[in-house]
Every structure is written in C-alpha cells, then in structure tokens.
Amino acid sequence: MITVENISKYYQRQTILHDVSFSLNEGEILGLLGPNGAGKTTLMRIINQIVVADKGHITFEGNLMQEKHLLEIGYLPEERGLYQSMSVEHQISYIGRLRGMSKTDTKSQLNYWLEKFGIQAWRKLRIEELSKGMAQKVQFICAVLHEPKVLILDEPFSGFDPINIELIRQELLEFKKKGHAIIISTHNMNSVEEICDRAILINEGHKLLEGNVHEIRENHKEGIYKISFTGNMIAFANALWAGYEIIDKEIHGDDDFSVYLKMRQGNEINDLLNAVINEVKITGVETVMPSMEKVFVKTINAEKEIPHE
Known about the structure:
By secondary structure, the chain is of the alpha/beta class. It has helices spanning 40-47, 88-98, 103-116, 132-144, 162-177, 189-195, 213-219, 233-239, 269-276, 292-304; strands spanning 2-11, 14-24, 29-33, 55-60, 63-64, 73-76, 150-154, 181-185, 198-203, 206-212, 224-230, 244-253, 256-263, 281-287. Helix 2 packs across helix 3 and helix 2 packs parallel to helix 4. It is globular and about 75 Å long.
C-alpha cells in the first residue's frame, strides 16, 4: 500500500531520520515505536507531505506519492488540531469536505460515527467545551470519516481511559478486516502486542528493528519458563541443580506456587520436569515471552553502545 524507501531528514546538521525504509501492506497494522525524539512524528509528516524529505521517496500503491493520494489517507497527528470555536458537527463536516466528500456523504458519515460512539448529544457543543478524551474521539472521527485506505495515527490512545482505548482498538481491528492499512505510533506497548502485525523500532533516526511482533518477541526470549505446581516449595527448590536459576515466584496458596526459572548450561525443559516430577505435582508449564516493552528497552540500551557515523 505504502513503500518508504531510504528516507532521510536533517535539521541544521542534526540527523532526524537516516535511510529509513519499510513497507505497509493492505489489511495490516504496523506499530511504529521509538523514544521521544526518535523521528517517528517527522516520518509520519513526510508521508503526509507536511515535511519534505532530504533523501529518498515514498510510493502509494506503486506510484510516487502525490498530493491526490492524501485523499486516501486518514491522519491523526499527535498535536491535536481542532478548531476550538467550532461545534462538533461543524468541525467534522468541515474535515469531511476538505477530504473531498460530498455534503450528503459527510452528513451520513457524521451521523454514523456519532451514533456508533454514542455521542449524538455532543453535536452542538463547541470543541472548547469538550474534555480531552471527548475531543480525542472527535479527532479520531475526523481521521476516519472518509473511509481512507490508509490510516496514520500518532499516539491514538493518548487521553483515553481503558474503556475508550478498547473502543478505539476494536475500531482499528474492524478497519483491518476491511483491508485498510494502518500505521500506529504509540507508547502503549500492550496495544502493540494486541493489535499490531508488525513493528518497527526507530531510535535517533535509525531503524533498529523490524518484523512480525510475535517473531520479534520469540527472537528475544531469554530461556525463562513459568512452572506452576502444588506441593512443597522447599522440595521443589532442592530438586533443582546448578543448571537452573529461580528468578521469581508467586504464592497462590499454602501449597500452590508458580516459579520463574532461567535455563543454564544448555538444559532443556524436559530435564527440569524430570528433576522435579517426583517431588511436586506440575499444573502448568509455559515459556515466558518478553513483552514488547522489554524488547524495546533492551534494544535501545544495546544501541546506545554502538556509535553511528
């Protein structure tokens, strides 16, 4: 759907983006991750032709990105751009017309989204009368009103409580089912794990990591297992040998435990189970997958030790 090829951007000898490339596919949600100042927002602005790249180019459905393609993109910027004196319906209608929608289609979509979000009572309120979360819903509607092929969302969950985060999450999954392509820049790592198909990690303008979210987590496993059992904790610990390190434990009851173990010296899970099976009753075994937040922190910290040219 969108291909970003070798994009670079510099401001007064400072590297904002350096040779960043990736693709966004139809029916895919791509997570764009990175610390503050990594270059994520600049990259989104370049895709939306708000900022001009110093090097590289972007294509939309195989064609060099042009202004006409922006009508197929819905953009939710991090800095919210609503007109404070406008009413909710006036603001949404205004954006619809800017996106090339007819008056009839704009009105139909306006009514659809106000009803879908249960906010019909807001339509006459001025933007300045809305709370941050309320205004965020209006901004989201403005981004999706014209049913764009591509959604580019900068911190879409900011300002929302857990209930509304789930509401927006479900809407994004619906867009995905319909074949829309979505880029999300977010600090909400749980959302990345739950809805993103792929993730890209950018730091100091450089792309450090890209791949399927599950595969990224799989590749960063540290050989940690969670063993749940009933029985005696001391007997369990005594049955282990130097090949295992107890990292943490959870006590669920007098004889009900979960222990987090790290493998050492090439031992396998079967070796562990054979060592303890006669001492306690095993009720569960699972591989501990690192969260995207842990992968994020580990990768950024490792990158700090590598000088760039």
